[in-house]
């Protein structure tokens, strides 16, 4: 495996890890299930949300996880989770902040995932896939660890679609010869804006069931015409 | 790591991915939980079932996932998931097709997993283990993502056992000097036939509890003989 | 990646795998959910608990899993799971044995994880992280596969904290120049003793909610002093 020429700057990576950690801890602090989370549980969610995306990206690329090659990633994620826990009391009702942070975080993880995949030599489609997995992976790990229904699987707010659109925009821009740094900025913006618009306008994908029902309705409506009763 | 001399032909790999994708989408379309799946959810299950086995195999072998080295795998899985969704309305009651497809798919993934593991140099026992993980891994990921009880863990229809028997047959045939392509055909056939027989005759493993009860019953029955009361 | 100079002796690794397998099978045999486990389910839990920690460790380190490079690991884990199943009837009420075994097993997996990470060249913080993941990873996989709430996430008995303290002790001792074999013994002892003390004295971390309530109580108590009413 050749040494990648493009390296995500450490500060950018740590910003994503830190924002992810804060967001995860805010989410976990607000969680009231039938079994409660202790301090450690909230911290684990913060670490998962801050570092999960990067871990999944590197596993899919077959590389040793970059987030474990320096002390800074874990220290940042733990510090961010602590900040998130302390702020949870104050921010409990500032829901838009949690949603906004989340939109930026999935944008960043998606862009880092796709650009690293392209640099390592993956074709466009799998590079976008790795980006989406990096963007939504932390949330999937969080939901599985907390015993919640996995959010991206259910009728929601175009969560993975926002990540996919941003990663595709990045990969397309890079394929057209754009500088990958600039392409990454475009990707992050795409994801963040689509995700926020989806939340604001309460957009979601049509359900499988609804579509099926509509088809049945059409077929049922057609019956009287084909086989008139009277 | 030496370059494997044996490479699974791309068309065979894509057939497995495509059948897995169709099967996953059919399964997910029939799912009626308390929280419904949207289009994206059905597509994700299709991709997981089509590509999950290969991903898990390569992670266990410490190799970069083969399914991400070309555009074809993801495109095939996505197309297959779409086909599965469109056919779901028609095929909802053709349960034997879903079961039959599934039997072939676990056979293929098991055979590809075991043969790749053998080629990479793993001993027989771990090679069979990698094959079984490749065969059932997509289904485990599906169940975890959908919040269902993990099927292979519960009293069922010899699902993992069918995969294990096929992988063991393949590995044994290869150890006896048989051509690995021929060994793979034997492995796929073993798994598919055992799985179908298990479904047809409703076979399952005895439960842990039942066995325990039987043992207690034997011990209780033995008491009068050892310590006669009268 | 350089060849590690320090190699965990095979017998030590197999002892950990075997104890983990027995412990997992004992745990799974005692499980009475709404859907029962069959033989295979109990065996899978035994294999997961015996080999899961090592698999997760090597995935995080970007190395091919050591537990799949020889036949012995799987054979040991399967044999141990069988022994655990046979003993489950006798040991069902010997809860302290299951807890004691578990304390030793997380100590061993944590120590092997941290020491291998240090040898591969990871800095102190990620090395401790890898050790903790290796120690608790098998249990997380077990809970997810069995559909149980993930134990380390919930108000519990300092499970992950015991692992973390032992791994930190090992890494600190190694950083101070102690022989890594001796450091590993210290680490295992730390984890086992802390875990057992936590269970004996029923210690747990304060809940997030409780702390939040206490803070609110303090603030409420302070109000009369700052703004006296009378």
TrEMBL record, chains A, B, C:
Signal sequence bounds: none
Glycine transporter domain span: 10-87, 101-170
Parts of the chain that traverse the membrane: 6-27, 39-60, 72-91, 96-114, 120-141, 148-174, 180-205
First-listed, main subcellular location of the protein, grouped into a coarse class: membrane
Location(s) in or outside the cell: Cell membrane
Recorded topology in the membrane: Multi-pass membrane protein
GO cellular component terms listed in the entry, alphabetical order: plasma membrane
Pfam family, one: Gly_transporter
This protein's UniProt keywords: Cell membrane, Membrane, Transmembrane, Transmembrane helix
Superkingdom assignment: Bacteria
Family membership: Belongs to the UPF0126 family.
Protein name: Putative membrane protein YeiH
Organism: Microbacterium halimionae
